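re: ur question from yesterday

yeah so i grabbed the chain u mentioned. its 253 aa long if i counted rite. heres the sequnce exactly as i have it in my notes:
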Amino acid sequence: METYSLNIAYNGEPFCGFARQPGLLTVQGELEHALALVFRDEIETTCAGRTDSGVHARGQVVSFAVPDGAMEGRSPQRFLRSMNALTHDGIVVTCLERRPNDFSARFDARSREYRYFLYPHEAPPIFMEAFSWHVSGELDLDAMRAGAAHLIGEHDFKSFCMAASAEGRRTYRCVNEISLFGETTMGERLVVVKIVGNAFLHSMVRSIVGTLVAVGRGRRDPEWVASVLEARDRTAAGENAPAKGLVLWKVDY
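ran it thru and got these structure tokens back, copy pasting raw so excuse formatting
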């Protein structure tokens, strides 16, 4: 067997998440359907990070294996054209790469970078409405940075995980970076929360962002974030930020 990887970008709005689910529109379901048509065989894929319903991706990586010689006669350009013609309009396949036969998009990933887009203004956005969380009013970014500092390093992030998915599972993760910076897109001034870690729990990034926004709004002080982490209880943290503002930005190997 030969192993390959695809770089994928998608608008998560129409999909019920990445993972295949019978009878539902999913990113994995669309990719595997397209691969089956190209190779005339069932192809199973593995992704770098499962995204929830409504979450977007700029740099998702997906690996798959095909029989030896199955790619013979297919140029990367022709293969990408076929995949983009066969998948949902919300998905774009941007790169095909040959990998070592034991490569896994999930298990060989060294780090994953997510970016969350906030729009902290009184009036809502127009161009970024589908890709950001409109937070009415201003945010204290310095307070948010001070709160985020408590989350850097390896910790038990049970407070920042969907309670049901944490049962009986190890909830320690290592967060390497949480940074906040401004960015202007189509004339709309955004605040970007960049979070880099080795791996993430279910809804972990969204609950971190919701918790930091509570600090930025002045509803909690930065030290509260440390107490949330220590509580190891999802009810101690802030709200889950809306899915539409979250993008799986990049995966490093």
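noticed a couple things. The CA atoms of residues 156 and 177 lie 16 Å apart. also The first strand starts at residue 2 and ends at 10.
anyway ttyl
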